[in-house]
Amino acid sequence: MEDGVDHLAFERNKAQFDVEDMKIIWAGSRQDFELSDRISRLVASDPAFRKDDRTTLDRKELFKNTLRKAAYAWKRINELRLNEQEAYKLRSFVDQPAFTDLHWGMFVPAIQGQGTDEQQQKWLPLAYRMQIIGCYAQTELGHGSNVQGLETTATFDPKTDEFVIHSPTLTSSKWWPGGLGKISTHAVAYARLIIGGEDHGVHGFIVQLRSLDDHLPLPGITIGDIGMKFGNAAYNTMDNGVLRFDHVRIPRNQMLMRVSQVTREGKYVSSNVPRQLVYGTMVNVRQKIVADASVALSRAVCIATRYSAVRRQFGSHNGGLETQVIDYKTQQARLFPLLASAYAFRFVGGWLKWLYMDVTERLQANDFSTLPEAHACTAGLKSLTTTATADGIEECRKLCGGHGYLCSSGLPELFAVYVPACTYEGDNVVLLLQVARHLMKTVSQLGSGNKPVGTTAYMARVEQLMQYHSDVEKAEDWLKPNVVLEAFEARASRMSVACAQNLSKFANPEEGFQELAADLVDAAVAHCQLIVVSKFIEKLQQDIPGKGVKKQLEVLCSIYALFLLHKHLGDFLSTGCINPKQGSLASEQLRNLYSQVRPNAIALVDAFNYTDHYLGSILGRYDGNVYPKLYEEAWKDPLNDSVVPDGFKEYIQPMLKQQLRNARL
Ligand SMILES: CCCCCCCC/C=C\CCCCCCCCCCC/C=C/C(=O)SCCNC(=O)CCNC(=O)[C@H](O)C(C)(C)COP(=O)(O)OP(=O)(O)OC[C@H]1O[C@@H](n2cnc3c(N)ncnc32)[C@H](O)[C@@H]1OP(=O)(O)O
Ligand SMILES: Cc1cc2nc3c(=O)[nH]c(=O)nc-3n(C[C@H](O)[C@H](O)[C@H](O)COP(=O)(O)OP(=O)(O)OC[C@H]3O[C@@H](n4cnc5c(N)ncnc54)[C@H](O)[C@@H]3O)c2cc1C
């Protein structure tokens, strides 16, 4: 079959909505769309940003290639006088993880969030001009999740007005920070503050690591890359590093002092702000990771959807065309929930960005009331969306059959780059346990007149939700947003209340929390899924212009919610929120919804507006011209440079000759 081009054009004609209008909804606004469109085309049309050769490079070549691209991107950013938002887009579309992600994504925000005005004035201009390059050095060989367990020390020396940064043990070696291994000149390093023998807990310090003249490590610094990581190219473009401090001295004013200060006399002074603000950079990045989940998942879904329309298997009658695999109901039941999830994560990501901006403004006005909500939402949604996205990318690979396993499908690399998102910025289980603590606190305060707010506001109706039984009678009832919302609220609140009741049976609450951790994680997932569903529904209550656009989003919203209901049917049944018949009606409705998405599927992924360069996938090409390009690509593999491979004469020929001799004997 070599008519893939015709097939996708035919698919596009089937769409029942205006794809150009959907592009604006996906991008967030017309302005955002135009920005992304312009910058993605700029990157795609520049040969310096080609990436199809990435998987054939060895680590050193790959790393050098990354440095070249980062330097070239910076040159273009300056030449074109791109603003912050445009520069961020350009780095994203270059699509090659690099030290710059950590410089702009964590080092700069750490100083912005935790530095005093004076510190910001000193360090930020240098960082903005990239006259220094920074990383975020928190995790150690022995401690990642448990930040309070970090061992690196920063001991105040009142004689010299300095801190002495030291790695007392092997396990205190900094381990993992991106950009640290080979490039960063500076780090925001996290260490226990020790004054006069007293431990004041973990704080951030700006530490210079390498000379700005010859890039050699400064005295007392041992530094390097931690080695090859999962996947071939993937995240190996990044120099995740190891770092040991041997009594490295830094001036006192290099402790980030917005949250607490150390005076010249060595007095520890806490500002009137919560100590958790030291963790603020992580909250910021978790929020970005949620938005990024929709990007990674939509890339995979775009590839799998286009390829599913091109690929045909079975069902040929009288020599006619075989069936497009996208028409198999099993393919639809695996693919369309992922398509719906990509849209769901897009909208919840937009909402979370708003929440983060809101909490940031409040913090500036010394209002800390929404910090626990911001922490719980960013932690929980980071966990939920990255787990679903990593699993979803792998599912998309399987949806593409054997060809999905080829690097030229783009999926192996996307998966390998993406999957550590389940671990970095907080292991996903550890983060869900944070959400669970927040939920348990909320439940415990229900009777106290402390009204739950924000995303836990539904708990205020806990008595009503404990009595709830779904009144769904027919499949169409599951299309009503309130019906879905109530079922999700009732399930989430019942799971939280059950955990709280079980916890109260333990004399020691911490022991109970450990014992019930698996149930608590399930309750946290139910709560986070409710947030995503409710934010999708809220999005649909806004004015959504464009022919047929709202209708498509309603279908996707119902698919997202009913797919979750189907997947977690055990929760909904065991909490008594719905009965088995209502569960079957939801599955029936889901099948109807899949049929409604089918004619629109290609246009729904076109709405992501990804260039072929960004997708980096032969299977996901816009023109659907898959087979000729796959065939062409195979010949470009370095193994095909020679007809007889290196090593044949050395190893295989003697073996063949030996067999021949044996046969003759
Ligand atoms: C195909 C892709 C190609 C790539 C192309 C690249 C292009 C790039 C451009 C654009 C893309 C941008 C997308 C973004 C992607 C970003 C990439 C990122 C790269 C990866 C970098 C990774 C960095 C890291 O991993 S840094 C290290 C992160 N480490 C962690 O997350 C550690 C996790 N642990 C913790 O956070 C804590 O230890 C804890 C929360 C688990 C426990 O803390 P503890 O103090 O012990 O707290 P606890 O006693 O439980 O609670 C005390 C109270 O404090 C509250 N609390 C805890 N944390 C916070 C917080 N953060 N904020 C507010 N409050 C907090 C807690 O609730 C308790 O409150 P209570 O009221 O007392 O109950
Ligand atoms: C690609 C990548 C990039 C990174 N970049 C950076 C960086 O730039 N800067 C930086 O500082 N760090 C970075 N990190 C480190 C990262 O933040 C940590 O790996 C992460 O926080 C997880 O911590 P850990 O490795 O200690 O996992 P662990 O906590 O050791 O987790 C191991 C297992 O134990 C479980 N577990 C741990 N604690 C609990 C608990 N309380 N209850 C139940 N289960 C638990 C986890 O669920 C997991 O299954 C990076 C990591 C990766 C993979």
UniProtKB/TrEMBL annotation:
FAD binds at residues 139, 178. GO terms for molecular function: acyl-CoA oxidase activity; FAD binding; fatty acid binding. Its cofactor is FAD. It comes from Glycine soja. The lineage of its organism: Eukaryota, Viridiplantae, Streptophyta, Embryophyta, Tracheophyta. The active site is at 425 (proton acceptor). The keyword Lipid metabolism applies. GO terms for biological process: fatty acid beta-oxidation using acyl-CoA oxidase; lipid homeostasis; long-chain fatty acid metabolic process. Pfam families: ACOX, ACOX_C_alpha1, Acyl-CoA_ox_N. This is Acyl-coenzyme A oxidase. It comes from the Eukaryota.
